[in-house]
Amino acid sequence: MKLFVDVGNTALKWRFRQGEKVEQGGCRHGREWPVVIDTLLRDGGHIESIWIASVAGPSADAEIAGLLTERTGVSPCFYYSCEEDFGVRSCYPEPRKLGVDRWVAMIEGYQRYGASIIIDCGSALTIDAVDGKGQFLGGYIVPGLGMLRTALLRDTSDVHIEPAAARPALGQSTGECVHNGLLRMSVAFVTEVVVELRQVLEDTCKVLVTGGDAPKLTGAFQFEFLHMPDLVLDGLERVAARQQ
Length: 244
What we know:
Elements: E1 2-7, E2 11-18, E3 21-28, H1 33-40, E4 49-54, H2 58-72, E5 77-78, E6 84-85, E7 88-89, H3 100-113, E8 116-121, E9 124-130, E10 136-143, H4 145-154, H5 174-197, E11 206-210, H6 214-218, E12 226-227, H7 231-243
Parallel strand pairs: 1-4, 4-5, 8-11, 11-12
Antiparallel strand pairs: 1-2, 2-3, 6-7, 8-9, 9-10
């Protein structure tokens, strides 16, 4: 059985593959790595290889590797961003500093569709563009919905809101005003960037949307897109297949 792990800033997702059988899961990690690894491995089973794409940082990667090796007897392989791979060329002066989640998502998008716009709706909202020749043109990183909400509430002590579904419409309570306003602001930003990039890329290029907050945003998008919640794991598995 093969294990693929995507370690994000706030959540961890995993995929077990045994032939054509695939099982996936995920949880918020809170950087409590022993607890998370226990959750990940609770169903047991013999693991023959482990591949990880992590943006948690060197110390976290070392702790995760140690815990997995101790529990499974398998030393995990970490994949990091590089100058060029699978036809995609980085524009970063120091390619390793590009978040590997963004990098493998771009690899998967390019390998499937060629020129593409990747929107990752996670704790941060990122947008990246790859042209038809595999050149990573650059991207944007802004706070995601949760981060925006936290910042607003932290600095406005008199604003108290309850969880609610957001929609791109005028709010009729303080909570609705906050939720709807943050949604509309995020959707407007994404839409403006997509329109701009389609003047640079082929206007038929695919827009691929991933990340935990994608369902909250995509309902308000007025452009065509593909929702690909497992884009990072798909890209990681593609990279790993070359080595196995």
